Amino acid sequence: MADENLRPDESPRNNANTDDSVFAECTEDSIQNLVSDMQSHFKTMSQTILNRIDDMGTRIDQLEFMLNDLISEVEATEAKKEQIQTQNMTLNKESELEVQKKGDEVLGI
């Protein structure tokens, strides 16, 4: 008898359909919001990762530049050392020859 007060389009079955459609709309909106939030979060995280990769690339380039400078300095230092060693060897040979000549002169050879 409670159904007598309902209009024909408000049968318990129609009310259930209305509730289901409201629930479906709420669920769809919630899912859309969740997906939108996830996309926004993913985009932010992706940009953060890309920025960090760019920063790392810049740091690597700086380190490579500094390393090349150090290598150049070491090579220049090594070249100077070799030049000094060559000069010292030449001077030592010249000194030995002079000592030998003076020794020969003293001995009358």
UniProtKB/TrEMBL annotation:
<dbReference type="GO" id="GO:0003714">
    <property type="term" value="F:transcription corepressor activity"/>
</dbReference>
<comment type="similarity">
    <text>Belongs to the HSBP1 family.</text>
</comment>
<dbReference type="GO" id="GO:0070370">
    <property type="term" value="P:cellular heat acclimation"/>
</dbReference>
<feature type="coiled-coil region">
    <location>
        <begin position="60"/>
        <end position="94"/>
    </location>
</feature>
<dbReference type="GO" id="GO:0005829">
    <property type="term" value="C:cytosol"/>
</dbReference>
<dbReference type="Pfam" id="PF06825">
    <property type="entry name" value="HSBP1"/>
</dbReference>
<feature type="region of interest" description="Disordered">
    <location>
        <begin position="1"/>
        <end position="20"/>
    </location>
</feature>
<keyword id="KW-0175">Coiled coil</keyword>
<feature type="compositionally biased region" description="Basic and acidic residues">
    <location>
        <begin position="1"/>
        <end position="12"/>
    </location>
</feature>
<protein>
    <recommendedName>
        <fullName>Heat shock factor binding protein 1</fullName>
    </recommendedName>
</protein>
<dbReference type="GO" id="GO:0005634">
    <property type="term" value="C:nucleus"/>
</dbReference>
<dbReference type="InterPro" id="IPR009643">
    <property type="entry name" value="HS1-bd"/>
</dbReference>
